[in-house]
Amino acid sequence: GEGTGGLPAEHCCSISVRDSAALLDATSAPDYGGPYVAPFKARPYLQEVDAPHRRLRIGLLRTPLTGIDVHPDCLAALESAALLCRGLGHEVTDEAPTVSDMPAVGQAFARLFVVSAALHLRSLEQQVGRQAGEHDIEPLTRAVVGLAGQVSATDYVLAQRTLQRMAREIAAFHEHYDLILSPTMACPPSAIGELAFREGESIEAFFARSGPFAAFTSVYNATGQPAMSVPLHWTAGGTPIGVQFAARLGDEGTLFRLAAELERARPWASRLPPLRG
Fold first, then answer.
1. pLDDT tens, residue by residue, 94-150
2. What is the pLDDT at residue 252?
3. Alpha helices of 28-179 — where are they, by DSSP H?
4. DSSP assignment letter at 247
5. How many CB atoms lie within 10 A of CB 31?
6. Which string of DSSP letters, residue by residue, matches 101-144?
7. Dihedral (CA of 118, 120, 126, 131) sign
8. What are phi and psi of 232, to 5 degrees?
9. How far is CA 127 from the centre of its chain?
10. pLDDT digits (tens, 9 = 90+) for 222-262
11. Predicted pLDDT of residue 276
């Protein structure tokens, strides 16, 4: 992190946002010659934290595009964040993007996911000069990689096209809205180990069980849009509940400016949830 250094007192509440900005500044760089090129940032993200901001148009996404139910605590976090944004002068409306064929998107995402896992494992095997043994990778990774052989080359290309179509549909929404506000997850955080892959469990059962934790975030894995989770809400028991803001492709600057504004209005860096045995 950058640390407060000589920052004026009014900036100290946004130190966690500053650390995120400094980290992304330090690790982001153009990938010249790469198959995809991210838009270039207008200035360092650290400068965005203190930059003047404008009134934003924010659409509310209450239900995941997958259609699963959302826990009341996560919906309460969404309403609280929407109220805070309105109080800061932003326009927040009940409008959300739509995707024409979510079942096809889900299948496409799964196919690309398992093939990508297999490719990463193959790359690592080539680096070390041997195949991965039974104790080299986790059971979940082994199960996921085992599905990759069921995906044909045609399936893979069609999956790419399906996710690209979804990205265009969501991009069309951003012609009128700067940000999409949603819960970060469809359920509260889990206990340590709760999501572990269970012995004898099918990969389909695991994905169904873990789905609520990625219901809102996985969309942006596919579209490439920048998104941030901010802990603006806490349950009565002291558990932090995040909300997610997603921006247009390449518009990280808007996210950093809003994050700094939100943290000044409702600081969270010094808050810690209670430890439970």
1. 999 999 888 899 899 999 999 999 999 999 999 999 999 888 999 889 999 999 999
2. 96
3. 45-50, 72-87, 102-128, 139-147, 153-173
4. E
5. 10
6. -HHHHHHHHHHHHHHHHHHHHHHHHHHHTS---TTTS-HHHHHH
7. negative
8. -90, -15
9. 30
10. 899 999 999 999 988 888 999 999 999 999 999 999 999 99
11. 62
Measured distance CA(170)–CA(180) in Å, rounded: 10
Strand-pairing partners, residue 92, are 58
pLDDT, greater one: 189 or 243? 243
Q: Sign of torsion, CA 247 252 257 261?
A: positive
Q: How far apart are CA 132 and CA 126, in angstroms?
A: 10
* Alpha carbon distance 56, 89 (integer Å): 8
pLDDT, residue 50, reads: 92
Angle between helices 15-27 and 252-265 (to 10 degrees): 160
C-alpha–C-alpha distance, residues 235 and 48, integer Å: 31
